Amino acid sequence: MDLKNKIAEAAEQVLLANGLAKTTTKEIARAAGCSEGSLYNHFKNKEDIFLHVLRGQLQNLMRTLTSLQSLAGKETIRRNLEPVTRAALEDFSNSMPLICSVFSEPDMLLRHREGFALRNEGPHRANEAVAAYLFKEQQLGRIREEMDPKAIADLLLGSCFQHAFQVNFLGKIESNDERAAFCDRMLSTLFP
Amino acid sequence: MDLKNKIAEAAEQVLLANGLAKTTTKEIARAAGCSEGSLYNHFKNKEDIFLHVLRGQLQNLMRTLTSLQSLAGKETIRRNLEPVTRAALEDFSNSMPLICSVFSEPDMLLRHREGFALRNEGPHRANEAVAAYLFKEQQLGRIREEMDPKAIADLLLGSCFQHAFQVNFLGKIESNDERAAFCDRMLSTLFP
Amino acid sequence: MDLKNKIAEAAEQVLLANGLAKTTTKEIARAAGCSEGSLYNHFKNKEDIFLHVLRGQLQNLMRTLTSLQSLAGKETIRRNLEPVTRAALEDFSNSMPLICSVFSEPDMLLRHREGFALRNEGPHRANEAVAAYLFKEQQLGRIREEMDPKAIADLLLGSCFQHAFQVNFLGKIESNDERAAFCDRMLSTLFP
Amino acid sequence: MDLKNKIAEAAEQVLLANGLAKTTTKEIARAAGCSEGSLYNHFKNKEDIFLHVLRGQLQNLMRTLTSLQSLAGKETIRRNLEPVTRAALEDFSNSMPLICSVFSEPDMLLRHREGFALRNEGPHRANEAVAAYLFKEQQLGRIREEMDPKAIADLLLGSCFQHAFQVNFLGKIESNDERAAFCDRMLSTLFP
DNA sequence: TATGAATGAGCGTTCATTCAT
DNA sequence: AATGAATGAACGCTCATTCAT
Question: Which nucleotides of E are covered by protein (CB under 7 A)?
Fold first, then answer.
């Protein structure tokens, strides 16, 4: 693996453990096994490293969402949404400190909002992907006309997002079974 | 108003605007119209100020939740939940940078988790309050037996929480009407 | 006891425990049971308090030295010097942190040197008093002509002073018996 | 000379001039001709710098004490002790503000006492070295049996130590001749 | 490209002193 | 005389970034 990736992985690990504010370049360099100077041979600055790491988050969820699109009309809706819900809860849980760190420096957020928009990035993309899938199902007649696909998506992913937040806040460590149970309860309530 | 409150209000304003990491004692003092030294006549340190402000968040929501408990059996459930949903979205939207700042310094979170638990504070309290209300309604026969009150609460508040996050992330400024519309869509989906 | 004395005693206790550098006005006030403001009703400033306390040190030794002067010609010289030596060791031991603190702020020392000289204060006074006594004994023929009274005084008190320093440095707590033994050894060596 | 040594020398100079309490990192950096930040590339903190400087004190005396050990049986005892006494007076005089600074922050002293003990450092080492030499002389029959070598060492070095203290306290600047005269008087009294 | 010593602006915090009550 | 909140200068220290090697 080249040094750039080594730095990125080290930075991700440190950022998740310490939060953005307490993540120092010295610590990243130590974790990556290189000098502080080397960081600047591969990234413009610390912010650049953070953004690089941030973009790599939620990949598991994003991959699951891509495959979701082709499942319209197959199996049951609930069964199709299961892996998505699980992936969302998992990725949200793992990335929460990093995702929230975006708000610890609002000027940085401001600086990159436009870029996010241009590249169509951001956490709302997941909700839109689920809504798109549900819309297809609705057109296939598998969801009642009066239901609002986007609303269902917001409820489902929103509950996962907040749950991930709260679990992180309380410092709980959820087992896979506990996570699966939460997802089940959400899905069962939305799709009785 | 005494200086302690003036400092707290100034700190809240600065924290919401700048995030915890970029909130300096110098800036708080400037906003409060006092010297930096005065901060330490009323608070132990910067962290103490932050925690003081943090505890004051979500008050609108909490108040609404208190009145909710006595509404079981009256009006329609959906109508009862409307102000709660609105308050949640509003408070979450206004407090998001501050709430997320908790994750920017994990050791601070660690340091105060026990205290939060002892005082039964934390964002999960809201979900429990809504669930308690729905449970009462269920016992009154106004909600079907097989529904899970906690799950409904998690879906409703979770969607508001994530929506608040996304709106903050994208830098959108939502009008009251837009907020109301979002709440309506969530409630209509959960209570068709 | 009036407040001025209460403050002085509190300051002495705090100064001996914490050293000048770590002695704060807040701590003195707390120990004296009054407000910080009150300190300034009785002393010009913190330095003034320190000097007041400093002047009160070595009182036991000074008293013993006064009585020493009238003992010339009586008993044995060694017996006469015993209480002086003991008092010196004791006072030096108890006051060492305070005495040394004089050097922690050389400009303060500079500022008050002239005053010390005018009032004929300072640690060298003790040596001179012992030398004066020994000179009387010499004139009474109880000490050989070729001996140097001042040198004997310097050896005797110097050894006590350094011993007090070292005991403080090492953090030892000497019993009265240990102190007496040290004094005996010094006197026995000087007056075989 | 590398920067670490430059900082150490600058710190020594500032510490001797100003005392520990009034020695600021800013001042050390200015004297060393580097930035304050650089101090922390070479030392853990200000205390670390102080301890580094402290350990370098009394080197002249220590060197003299080492050569003293091999002089037992040669020349006269008094002649052998002369350079030691001179070195002691000189080093004590030069280092007094620094040595006394140890007492200006008793918690620091507490923190490092164990370390001093482990490394067998401390001002009492000098006395022991002189006593060891005198003991050898005693075994060679050059000192009477009933004399106490440690007592003689304590008298000799103690008088130098206190003299150095008093000279510093009074702000006198002693010439080499004055110092030599003092040493002579002490030695002549102890070894008539 | 890799380094790591040097930087310097900026941080949170302390504390002797003042002064209105 | 007694207070204690307010002060503001000064402190030790951190850390992202630079640059000569």
Answer: 1-20
pLDDT in tens, D37-66: 999 999 999 999 999 999 999 999 999 999
Which residue range is the domain that position D159 belongs to? 57-190
Q: What are the chain C neighbours of D169 within 8 Å (beta carbons)?
A: 102, 109, 122-124
> pLDDT tens, D103-140?
888 889 988 988 888 888 888 899 999 999 999 999 99
Query: In terms of domains, do D19 and D93 share one?
Result: no
> How confident is the prediction for chain A on average, in pLDDT?
95
- Total domains in chain C come to 2
Contact call for A162 and B161, based on CB within 8 A: yes
- Same domain for B148 and B67? yes
CA distance B123 to A49: 31
In a domain, B107, yes or no: yes
Distance, CA of A174 to chain centre: 17
Question: What residues contact D84, with CB distance under 8 A and at least 6 apart?
Answer: D61, D64, D65, D68, D130
Tell me, yes or no, whether B24 and B62 share the same domain.
no
Find chain D residues with C-beta within 8 A of C105's C-beta: 19, 21-22
Nearest residue, CA→C1' of F1: C41
Q: Round to whole Å and give the CA distance between B79 and D185.
A: 103
Among candidate residues A51, A71, A90, the one where a domain is terminated? A51
Query: For residue C7, what pLDDT is reported?
Result: 98
Q: Report how far residue C66's alpha carbon sits from residue C129's, in angstroms, rounded to the nearest whole number.
A: 8
C52 Cβ nearer than 7 Å to chain E strand: no
What is the Rg, in whole angstroms, of the alpha carbon atoms belonging to chain B? 19
Mean pLDDT of D168-179: 94
Question: Which residues in A83-118 are b (16+ Cβ under 10 Å) and which e?
Answer: bbbbbbbbbbbbbbbbbbbbbbbbebbeebeeebee
pLDDT exceeds cutoff 90 at D92: yes
Please give the interface size between A and B, counted as residue pairs whose CB atoms are below 8 Å apart: 161
User: Quick one: tokens of C94?
Assistant: 């108890």
Look at residue A87 in the predicted model and tell me its pLDDT.
Answer: 98
Of B115-129, C163-177, D82-96, D160-174, which gets the smallest average pLDDT?
B115-129
Mutate which of D184, D189, D190, D191 to disrupt the C interface (most C C-beta within 10 Å)? Answer: D189
Distances (CA, A) of A158 to A152, B78, C98, D185: 10, 19, 65, 90
